[in-house]
Amino acid sequence: MDERLQKALDASNFRLNLLNIKSNIKIKVDTMITVAVNGGLFKATRELITFTKLIMDKGHSSVVLIDENGNPTEIVDLPQFHNELLNCYFTATNYYHNEYAKLKKARSTADQFGEISRDDA
Amino acid sequence: MSCGYLIHAYNNTEIDYGQMAICCGLLIKKNLKINSTALVTVRDTYNWMVSQHGLDLVNRAFDHVIITDIERDVDGRTFFDTRYSKKAAPYYNTNRSDSFDLSPFDETILIDADYLVLDARLDAVWGSSEDIMVNNTVIDLNHVEDLGGFGKRIGNFGIPMYWATVFYFKKNDISRSIFDTMKHIKNNYKYYQNLYDFPASGYFRNDYALSVALHMLSGQVECNIIKPLPVGHMMVATENDDLIWFNNGTAIFISEPAQGDFRLHKINTNIHIMNKWAIGRMASRIINYAIS
Lengths: 121, 292
Hints:
Oligomer: heterodimer
Strand content of chain A: 5-15%
Distance between the termini of chain A: 39 Å
Strand content of chain B: 25-35%
Largest sheet of chain A: 2 strands, antiparallel
Number of strands of chain A: 4
Number of helices of chain A: 4
Shape of chain A: elongated
Radius of gyration of chain B: 18 Å
Strand order of the largest sheet of chain A: 1-2
Largest sheet of chain B: 6 strands, mixed
Structural class of chain A: alpha+beta
Distance between the termini of chain B: 30 Å
Order of helices and strands of chain A: HEEHEEHH
Structural class of chain B: alpha/beta
């Protein structure tokens, strides 16, 4: 095969791997922002964090919110819930940032999959 | 309220489901806060597990061991090990419908032995407002949703497909009805296969029985009352994919969507691995990680 074509195909594979790794990181982040409280499931999104802060600023300490499955869920301790949302959000975004930074440095498939050469298990 | 995971494992002539169940049980212990496990198996598989891995490891993986009987006169299934190898073996995993009676827990996640728990998302399930939760969307390693016919529906014009791989249920009348209906479908499988026009796989499929049961008990309409587990899809490594490395909670797969088109994947979230031999080849690494 022509050397330039081979290089282009290698680059294509590298790009595909990169795309898959990024998608998998997003799935992991999606997992990390899931918060369960009182039978309801929530995502620690910027909107929910802001909304709960708004309700607290209005002087409320409990509230009923609609969860990801459409179920009304009573949040008894709103400040604690708000803190949990913030905690999950920042843990997830920091993880995302760190993983993304590693990917930005990767220049080859070997860089992307450094785990194969390590042996921590 | 007791909460825990129920894992079925029945070895056949080719596949060591017991070893997979140990991997699954130990990963649950490693990665989840609520991590009680119950193994449903048969005496010969249990004896094999103990002889191969020792009683200590088996006891470490499972809080409860439930010995049951299974139907031995079952259809065969072809199991693929990548695109290049396949073997036929009996498919004994046909009794998921008994899980309601077998589970020692008030809230149960019924989970396949070939499902690797690599993150903590299932901790969000317990105490849910939902009576049951099950995924009806899967994606493969290349983030494709239609897995060669295993799409969102059973057949092109069929009902929504629900995956029995991971299935949360509370012990109440609603979930009992679902399991009773699954038993009825299992006993009349050919009839329901014709009625619902699902593909003939050659063996009884728990997924199809569950999907039909959920459809029947949803008033035979699509009303979206069955909610998914946290993170709405299930990630799947197909039988064409190979688990080539497992290190410190990260699984490295190689997929081959078209012959000769190899792609690498790094996974550290929960994943269903359809290539059973791939798990077997990495079992010692998975176990070592899980008990570390």
